[in-house]
Design goal:
By secondary structure, the chain is an alpha+beta fold. Helix content is 34%, strand content 14%. It contains nine helices and ten strands.
Length: 295
């Protein structure tokens, strides 16, 4: 059941970790899977068993979740409505360190249109049907009933957060939650470019005796993505530059044969966000790498 806008949790208590946990339990009771956030609005890092993609990235597969790890792991896939997990000893330290509470909109059958500034809010009031709204630091969250794929920077100051994403919990909103309109779904449809000509396509001779692109073999591709995740995770300084150069290296190796999937990209974005990068920074770095390579 999709929870009503005004029923999704409440602000309670003065002690940070107790307040965050109570809020999370309220959200879980309403069918909205929560998770704790560290300072900087980023999720907690992977547990030791999953560090460096040792687990094979299974919880990050498209539409999968929640993560089955005992601790708070795998970003959005850690979100859960199970109060036994939320109050378990393995999660206790996370609630003590948490700076905020987030939730997985797609896991609750919701879509959040994140409007990052006043201009984006003005656009939404003209272009989108009224729904439940929550004020943010610089703009608003417009919450709709129904899940869809997430996408960042669908237009200036606008992100879509639903499946495989998380949104910060900022208290109950106002208004009635409306169904996701076609106008919002259309924002994630990639429009063909009519400005830049397509790059020349290199002709690759067919493999002797048949076969397939080596990038599509799980061992080759997964090893490359895992190495990229580790390179980002190990960065101690110049994180922006490391993320961009890592994205560039991945696209140089795999960007032209079509073997990269949304799941692989989500793994790289999750690693970058765990180091403090915002979704917007990840999107910009990926777009800049694509442009640099003419993709």
């Amino acid at each position: 059941m999709t929870p009503d806008c005004k029923a999704r949790g409440r602000r309670t208590g003065n002690h940070p970790d107790e307040s965050h946990l109570r809020t999370a339990l309220d959200l879980a009771a309403a069918g909205v899977p929560p998770l704790p956030l560290r300072a900087g609005k980023v999720p907690f890092g992977n547990c030791h068993a999953c560090k460096g993609n040792a687990c094979g990235g299974r919880p990050n597969m498209k539409n999968a979740g929640p993560c089955e790890c005992a601790s708070v792991c795998h970003a959005w896939a850690a979100a859960t409505t199970d109060p036994r997990v939320l109050t378990s000893p393995a999660w206790a330290s996370a609630w003590r360190e948490a700076a905020a509470v987030a939730y997985h909109p797609g896991g609750a059958g919701l879509t959040v249109v994140d409007l990052d500034d006043a201009a984006a809010v003005a656009w939404a009031r003209e272009a989108l049907p009224a729904t439940c709204t929550v004020p943010t630091t610089r703009g608003e969250h417009w919450i709709y009933r129904g899940a869809m794929r997430s996408a960042n920077a669908v237009r200036s100051g606008v992100d879509i957060k639903s499946l495989m994403s998380y949104a910060r919990w900022l208290g109950p909103g106002t208004g009635t939650t409306a169904p996701v309109p076609d106008a919002v779904r259309a924002l994630t449809v990639k429009k063909p470019s009519t400005v830049r000509p397509a790059p020349p396509v290199a002709t690759v001779p067919a493999l002797a005796g048949g076969g397939e692109c080596r990038h599509r073999t799980p061992a080759y591709l997964d090893r490359g993505v895992a190495m990229a995740e580790q390179r980002i995770t190990d960065a101690r300084s110049a994180v922006h530059t490391t993320v961009y150069r890592t994205f560039l290296a991945v696209l140089s190796a795999h960007g032209r044969c079509g073997c990269l999937t949304d799941t692989h990209i989500a793994r790289l974005f999750t690693a970058a966000q765990a180091k403090g990068e915002s979704p917007r920074h990840c999107t910009d770095a990926w777009a800049n790498a694509l442009t640099r390579l003419g993709l």
